[in-house]
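Ticket opened by: R.M.
Priority: normal
Category: complex prediction / small molecule

The reporter submitted a protein together with carboxymethyl coenzyme *A and asked that the result be attached to this ticket for the collaborator who will pick it up next week. Submitted input follows.
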Amino acid sequence: TDRFTYDPGFTSTASCDSGLTFIDGDKGMLLHRGYPIDQLAEKSSFMEVSYLLLDGELPNKAQLDEFEYTINRHTMVHEQLKTLYNGFRRDAHPMAIMCGVVGALSAFYHDSTDINDPEQRRIASHRLIAKMPTLAAMAYKYSIGQPFLYPDNNLSYAGNFLRMTFGVPAEDYVVDPVIERAMDRIFILHADHEQNASTSTVRLAGSSGANPFACIAAGIACLWGPAHGGANEAALNMLREIGTVDRIPEYIARAKDKNDPFRLMGFGHRVYKNYDPRAKVMAQTATEVLDKLGVSDPVFDVARKLEEIALNDPYFIEKKLYPNVDFYSGIILSAIGFPTTMFTALFALARTVGWVAQWNEMISDPAQKIGRPRQLYTGPTQRDYVPVDKR
Ligand code: CMC
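Result attached by the on-call engineer:
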């Protein structure tokens, strides 16, 4: 066993070569194919970033139009899929539903089993990117007992999702451009983040040659946890629980207490030992959205004050704990009208692009092998079986 390196949590193991995303955690830098995340968030669109991640370069106008057209053509889901939703309780968590319905897509697209065919991989990737908003919106509609809405392919990716989520068949739904832009920006900020837990899960599942829809379902399951994507839901719940600025010191004290399992949700990161650049854009977007919607959310004041207090506290300074992408996103999503239980499903929707891009990269890599970590065995040495009456 001396031959193996012990690295729990993979803090120092590179599992692959990748040309998609670069993070310099000390500098707080995030690049997709070389482009800084703040530039993409400000100037680009989620469709462009998706193309960039999948293809390697930003599209020209004709390429972008074609890509958007292709994604639009795949937004519908099979009618039979509706019956799957009906099998869930109405109070099912949307992430539980997403694990199920995305995994179930593998039963609808048997052609995707041929993962060595680049064309089949491309179609599966487009299907996944296109159908995630439809499936996530359906999970929400199901939870509130409203009818599912079909996609409207005249709308943008974000606009379509907003309409399927908040629209009703009896009325026209007018997409607010401010919300549409904020939604699109949130999607960009979540699109990819190199070898995080869920992406590594997708790669590991995919390394056995499994169906891509099943691999993405595995990624969704991993993302759900509060240490990962589930932190956006947990962060807003925590901020609401704190409620008022005067209660912040109590929670800071709890976060620092080693006998208390409580952590500041939306704080800290395995790779960033500096401000998460996504959190910066997120905080700025929260200010813009709340201003434009004329919403004043006391939770936003709590979040800003909490950040200020934590960033001046020796515990957080020493451990280099800063707000991460999940700290401010919930404030925006809540202002838009999403319940907290939908937050992680939105993360999954956007991260699907990164997952499929990484999955494609892995399968195209000649060095690709089935992922198979080793272990340091700590159990008993060989011994003889003892019959039950002798134990
Ligand atoms: N509040 C209080 N203390 C913390 C926190 C926090 N949020 N995060 C880390 N620490 C402490 C931790 O107790 C440990 O202290 P010590 O060295 O004394 O034992 C030290 O900082 C290092 O923490 P770690 O758990 O060893 O670090 P990690 O790289 O394994 O974990 C993390 C990273 C993100 C899981 C962790 O910071 C955390 O649990 N944060 C809260 C959950 C969260 O916001 N997750 C979202 C991550 S970002 C994007 C995403 O994936 O969604």
